[in-house]
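forwarding from the other thread:

> can someone predict this with adenosine-2'-monophosphate?

sure thing
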Amino acid sequence: MSQGAADERLRLFFALLPPPQLAAALAGRAAGLARDYGGRALPAANLHLTLLFLGDVGAARLPVLNLAASSAAAAWRPFTLQLDRLGYWPRQQLLWAGLQQAAPELSDFSAYLRSTVEKAGFSIGDAGRAFFPHLTLLRKPGRTPPDGLSLTLPAWPVSGFALLASTRTAAGASYRPLAVWLVP
Ligand code: 2AM
């Protein structure tokens, strides 16, 4: 028997979405890394920097979640990110783009969003995991990428964040934006 929409559960997270030109540059780099080291490069449409991972949430709770995110968005302070570092996590077999310099506005907003969402009654799927800003480029390379790979990209003036639903498919996860908040 099929589940009614009210019972539907969604795997949710909040993330920053790179603007199209930056996403294209990142996807090009990811494809090059996949050629060099094997593995699955993320396509431009799937590239994101997770702000807050929620995990499974009932679809009926989306309106409350949207309200909480809108109230957190009011505390946004503008910032620009410079993705200038590549790293590799052997346990997760994941190659990512990240930041050499800390971005306090980014970690502050992630923490504020988290506390706002928790106050609205949501428990956080990554409880205990420290926020580490990264944008996954490549999963499961066939051989370990060396340290010190360089990354040179244009700056990213962040102009908003999104609530995304993740769906697992045979080809890997795909992400669907459910709501976007544009910020000053
Ligand atoms: P990853 O890219 O490092 O795997 C959708 O799955 C997004 O949420 C991805 O950016 C993923 O990070 C992140 N994510 C998945 N599970 C998570 C967890 N338990 N805690 C924090 N982030 C998670």
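The pocket of adenosine-2'-monophosphate is lined by residues 13, 50, 53, 94, 125-126, 129, 136, 166, 173 (CB under 6 Å). thats all i got for now
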